[in-house]
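Ligand: adenosine-5'-triphosphate. Inputs:
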Amino acid sequence: MGLLDKFKRKKIEGIDDSTYLTLREERRISRENTKTIKEYERIRNRKNVSEEEYLTQMRDPANVVEFDNLHTYFFTDVGTVKAVNGVSFDIPQGKIVGVVGESGCGKSVTSLSLMQLVQAPTGQITQGSIRYQDEDGKCYDVTKMPRDKMLRIRGKDIAMIFQEPMTSLNPVFKVGEQMDEVILLHEEDSTDDSARERSIEMLNLVGIADVKKVYNSYPHELSGGMRQRVMIAMALLCNPRLIIADEPTTALDVTIQAQILELLRDVKEKINGSIMFITHDLGVIAEMADYVVVMYAGRIIEQGTVREIFHEPKHPYTIGLMRSKPGGHVEGDRLYSIRGQVPNPINMPNHCYFYNRCDKAMDICKRHYPAMTQFNSDHRAACFLYSDEILPEEKEDKEDGEGR
Ligand SMILES: Nc1ncnc2c1ncn2[C@@H]1O[C@H](COP(=O)(O)OP(=O)(O)OP(=O)(O)O)[C@@H](O)[C@H]1O
Ligand code: SF4
Ligand SMILES: [Mg+2]
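Predicted complex:
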């Protein structure tokens, strides 16, 4: 054994060292990233972008948002994280679309891409479009919109409710001041008095009893449920067309959770808006959503109406999710859990991402990524169990056979 071989790292059983990088490799990646990021930032920071560049047409005018082949990557020093990797789905006007999937599958990054809030400069939308239709029927591609134009939409037409209100509310300003500021920023004719009136009206709408007291309180003086109500009131201030709720009830206890869900449904009806509802909780999705999008490792693996996803799930991952919810399992008393882990987001395989966890895996699943199979106009899943696509090698076999 040579001297160099002695110092080579030995493979440790059970440890995935496929992502091990030498310092030189890290430097090379960092140099390449700097170049790539600079180019994306140059395009983003251009001044005087003409409206034609980001005006577009909706595929279906009944939708308020259409994600179309969205790719959002993070260019980190250890490699490119493909957080959202070709996501397409619609949010119809007046409907609730639930987005589910396990931690790290790209739910939040998808919604942040729509708000132009992906952490730059490492995070960049590299491909695809997000079409948004305003109330006048004008349609914008958010991925191409300049930042100053986006400021007019963000918080006004599209509002966001975050998981943890304490980190979203500013601790050094009173609730009322923070709410008034939103109105003064977005509504041109607003005055201090009209802003205050609107804030109080919204606090009333979300069922806060002592509105004047809450208006004059600092966030830390309120309970968790109250703060989440304030966040919802804040999101509603400018009559948004779309509310993005990213795990809005995860930090709350069960009784408050039910109240907040009821409240969200109520206000959605009142403003005739749409909701993109992100959650881990399938029970919440069953109660709230009209349509469901199931994400796995940055891609959509199944989507359909809430009834289809809950009663006729097709993808083995969705079937596993349904069995792992309390009450959804069949094997004895133990709760079902999907074995294994999501693949490393930096080194995604070039076959089905669920292959190493799937009970139904076939030979073909480790050679290709499955295309979407359409079951009806709403329901589709990416799995070879339902696919009748002709794959390259099958085509070759067929052609060879024909030539014989
Ligand atoms: N700023 C960042 N830099 C690098 N990677 C990031 C960054 N933000 C998110 N990611 C990666 O992007 C992927 C998707 O993250 P995302 O936050 O969208 O997951 P999620 O589905 O919302 O998970 P959770 O349910 O835990 O909130 C993850 O692999 C995450 O590590
Ligand atoms: S494509 Fe194959 S491995 Fe992937 S979910 Fe379907 S059956 Fe399982
Ligand atoms: Mg998240």
